[in-house]
Amino acid sequence: MRVGVFICHCGNNIAGTIDVARVAEETRKLPGVVYATNYMYTCSEPGQAEIKQTIAREGLNRVVVAACSPRMHEVTFRRTVEKAGLNRYLFEMANIREHVSWIGEDREANTQKAIEAVRMAVAKAIRNRPLVSSSFAVNKKVLVIGAGVAGMQAALDCAEGGLETIVVEKSPSVGGMMARLDKTFPTIDCSICILGPKMVDLVQHERIRLHAYAEVEDVKGYVGNYQVKIRKKTTYVDWTKCTGCGVCMEKCPGKNAYDHFNCGVSPTRAINIPFPQAIPKKARIDPQFCRQFTKGKCGVCAKVCPTKAINYEMEDEIVSEDVGAIVVATGYGLLDLERLPEYGAGRYPDVITGIQYERLLNASGPTAGHIVRPSDGTEPKTLVFVSCAGSRDKSIGVPYCSNFCCMYIAKQAILTKDHLPDSQSYVFYMDIRAPGKGYDEFTRRAQEEYGARYIRGRVSRIYPKGKKMVVKGADTLLGTQVEIEADLVVLATAATAAPGASMLAEKLHISYDTNGFYVESHPKLRPVETNTAGVYLAGAAQGPKDIPASVSQGSAAAAKVLSLLSRDALESDPAIAHVNAAACVGCLKCLKTCPFQAIKEEDLRGKKVAAVIETVCAGCGVCTSTCPCGAIQLEHFTDNQILAEVNALCRM
To answer: Which of 183, 230, 343, 366 is most buried, most CB within 10 Å of its CB?
Structure first.
């Protein structure tokens, strides 16, 4: 056995708290090690050239690099040893940066710990064996979940790249949250004017199929070959016949249905089309408010429909799609107002959310663009905007900034002055966060040109006083208490993970953080990839972000999909589980615990045994730890390899 070990300085990241020369010196004493050295930047081109030259010169058959996290550069080094003629799985990496140098300042302790980490890596490398990948064909279709601006951008880019694209949107219309907006910052463009053409392009593209008012029911398979079941929810209207004429809406006697698109600002009809520019522009019945369902009699819409599209017996439909990659662009939700009792939201009609105010501003909204108080329909003269309503508040479990609130408050203050020239807007803020191009200038414009008065401080309480709403807070710059009697209060509620995000994550086998947002593979180097191959992220599903960032991520995710599916075949990772059928007792505990459904039951000469579906297995190792008789081993992480590391650590 001829093992070569390379200790990386990583500038001062490692060498600053670890004596790398001593680590190399101690490593030379290990059995099987014929070469050990330290190098400034092992991941650099000269560093990789040094590894290749040393493999040839010293006749190395195992290589260990002690550097940063394998998540960062393991693939890089595997390619390097492969170019030098070694199997990529004869390489091992010891993490002495994130696991050692970055978490301790005691140089002696860090050095000793690094020596132990390298010793463990060498012990495992000696027991590594060559593994060979197999190839499999790919399905050149892509599924995009969510048809907000990020999802639409991803779908259109994939379709323009030649891929057949299936789009699933849980709402009756595409457009997402952006379709609800009146204007966009910092250009004050009409939101639907710039979004509408993209919506039309999506539904008319020859390579895009849209499933609106549908949700992903189940996902099976693996990268390049996913089998997806989609539940098309019941609309009680045959969309193949509906022309969107709106006659049913006009005649419907059920006038108190909750208007989801307008966020409850005003009621709507029990059968409705979400908004005038909706795509697809089709009607849907809400059975919770429809008299035909609640009372068993009505049927007005069925009588007046000129195309006979109404079907009260309609049921959910399950459709199956086979795709090679998935883009998750499910957007974001908004904080439940019940979690802000001190602001009176939900109890007082004149305390509304930012998105509800957008609908008041919008010409296609319930008030046709006229700003009025929900309580009495009069025009407000004094308005208070409360930023960070729930954001950056650990006490309610939302410790993060919602990214775009500062900007849309400034936008709404500007638009308010345009709509109501005699009005006065006050903005309570913690910090103004406006890092984008033209953003800071925009917030200054709201103050300097439109007279919005910004008060640095948090609001402690909002309560009614006659027809007014009293906003009580602090001005931390002046060090005084502030009370403002407002006609209308607008809360910039925190952006949260989309409802059902965690359930979808479990179906896709992707990770989500403590706040419910999906986790990218690497925040800097792989910002749109997940740890599940073939599944990508776009837009606010990964965290709160504005429209330009969402569009950029949509295109980035599409680029990753096009790169992945540009090949006719993909290579599988050979570091997967294998079953020793002779040792298997057929308990099938592995089948029950496998999160990827990669275990199946087989009959071996009348004996029930487990078997691994190699193309589905993700190498997570859950089955290995579950098996009571040790019949399953994970290649590249076998029991013998792990025990060799433990023995090396315990050896003084």
So the answer is: 343
